[in-house]
UniProtKB/TrEMBL annotation:
GO terms for molecular function: enoyl-CoA hydratase activity; long-chain (3S)-3-hydroxyacyl-CoA dehydrogenase (NAD+) activity. Signal peptide: none annotated. Pfam families: ECH_1. It comes from the Bacteria. This is Enoyl-CoA hydratase/isomerase family protein. One of its GO terms (biological process) is fatty acid beta-oxidation. InterPro entries: ClpP/crotonase-like_dom_sf (IPR029045), Enoyl-CoA_hydra/iso (IPR001753), FA_oxidation_alpha_subunit (IPR050136).
Length: 442
């Protein structure tokens, strides 16, 4: 069993609060992700900077290698701290427009830099994963040289960022296709598909799958037998795919996404940009492209809106539903939002069906605009409508905001994201707009 005593080799190790360490008699260091006061690990800014400092220290340490594991029984790591993410978004949009991308890049680049330092520190690093490793937790695992997963239904790898309007900004768009191949990576990156332990093993995202309780010993055995620790993309025999081949492989997927979304959802298109620019390139250049694209994406309103409704709102809704404590006005609010959309025809005339389809309230018919042109706008249509049809769509959106205004006293401020989630899932409100309360606040 590992000893919790610090050995002389650790005398200059940086102080950490989100992680703790143990060492084995063989000189293996256990880096244990164990956030104080949390039932589940998430990537806070503090955790990111601690990994960066640890990886810097590791490069000159005398330990034989590292096993990374969770100190929680709930999961390995559930992803980003979206509360901090919301604060970062507010900080970005409060800045002058010309400064927003630089601020976003500076704020979010450390996670990718930390994982890159870890995989190039010259020491073998293995991840022992029991439970979910999602988002940043999956990226953390892919930044290790070896991944051991427990053979349980609750263990899985996944990158669900696209489901809340974001992209994996810690190297996920680059390491996943390099590990499992371009085609296999697309459902994971674009649709939030998860890999079970066996699927991860077959695809190449996991190196071993063992019974629960054996993952740490298995990871230790690999560390003791490791020779030159290097990722596949850092080895001399790595061959990057051709630029044109990658572009052609992604063309059909890009066209499908535009046709399905009308160009209103920038995250999946940004993910395709990351892959197209990064996969043929050296990994450091690829990671630089990824964070540049992430910085462009995070300063847009769509991710903020989707995080509000599809993550924060969903969490609150599920918690209140299980407790049989949903707000009493919720059902009538959803019904009134639906009615407002259905009756928003004053002055719209024959343009109404096109406006409904364009905004995303209905899936019927084809989009009455060029999705690629909509996706290419720096300012989204709902902030600056560019045609009479878009103005008509905005009138429909405004009608739902009127419902939110009427229900202002029926929901506490803390319940409004929950109400928006209900409008998205039960009244067909487009998630990229956030919800009626989000529109009202904007």
């Amino acid at each position: 069993m590992p000893s919790q005593e610090r050995t002389p080799t650790m005398s200059t190790m940086p102080a950490m609060k989100e992680f703790r360490t143990e060492t084995t008699p063989e000189g293996i260091l256990h880096l244990i992700f164990d956030m104080p006061g949390r039932s589940m690990n998430v990537f806070s800014n503090a955790a990111i900077h601690e990994i960066d400092a640890f990886a810097t220290w590791l490069k000159t340490s005398t330990v034989r290698g590292v096993v990374i594991r969770s100190g929680k029984t709930s999961a390995f790591c559930a992803g980003a701290d979206l509360g901090e993410l919301g604060e970062a978004y507010d900080m970005i949009v409060a800045a002058r427009p010309a400064e927003r991308k630089r601020i976003a890049r500076d704020h979010f680049a450390p996670i990718g830099r930390a994982f890159r330092k870890l995989e190039t520190a010259g020491k073998p690093v293995a991840a022992a994963i029991d439970g979910l490793a999602l988002g940043g937790g999956c990226e953390f695992a892919m930044g290790c040289h070896y991944r051991v997963l427990t053979d349980t239904p609750r263990t899985a790898l996944g990158l669900p960022e696209s489901l809340v309007g974001l992209l994996p900004g810690g190297g996920g768009t680059q390491r996943m296709p390099r590990l499992v191949g371009l085609e296999r990576s697309l459902p994971i990156l674009l649709e939030g598909a998860r890999l079970s332990p066996q699927e991860a093993l077959e695809a190449g995202a996991a190196d071993e799958v063992v019974a629960a309780g054996g993952e740490v010993a298995t990871a230790e055995r690999w560390v003791l037998g490791a020779t030159v620790p290097a990722q596949p993309w850092d080895r001399p025999d790595w061959h990057a795919p051709d630029v044109q081949a990658v572009s052609e492989a992604l063309g059909q997927t890009r066209a499908r996404i535009l046709a399905e979304t009308g160009g209103h959802y920038p995250a999946p298109l940004a993910i395709l940009d990351c892959i197209e620019q990064g996969l043929p390139a050296a990994i450091d250049d690829a990671l630089g492209s990824e964070i540049d694209i992430f910085a462009d994406l995070i300063k847009r309103p769509e991710p903020r809106n989707m995080i509000r409704s599809l993550f924060i709102g969903r969490q609150d809704y599920d918690k209140r539903r299980k407790a049989d404590a949903l707000p009493g006005a919720l059902a009538s609010f959803v019904a009134d939002v639906r009615a407002a959309v259905e009756s928003a025809d004053a002055g719209l005339g024959d343009m109404r069906p096109e406006a409904l389809r364009f905004a995303g309230f209905t899936a019927e018919g084809s989009y009455p605009a060029d999705p690629a042109e909509i996706a290419g706008r720096e300012v989204p249509w709902f902030e600056k409508p560019g045609s009479p049809m878009e103005e008509a769509a905005l009138k429909i959106v405004a009608a739902t905001a009127g419902v939110a205004r009427a229900y202002g006293s029926a929901f506490a401020e803390s319940e409004r994201a929950l109400a928006d989630f209900a409008a998205v899932t039960q009244a067909g409100f487009p998630s990229y707009l956030g919800g009626p309360f989000a529109v009202l606040e904007q």
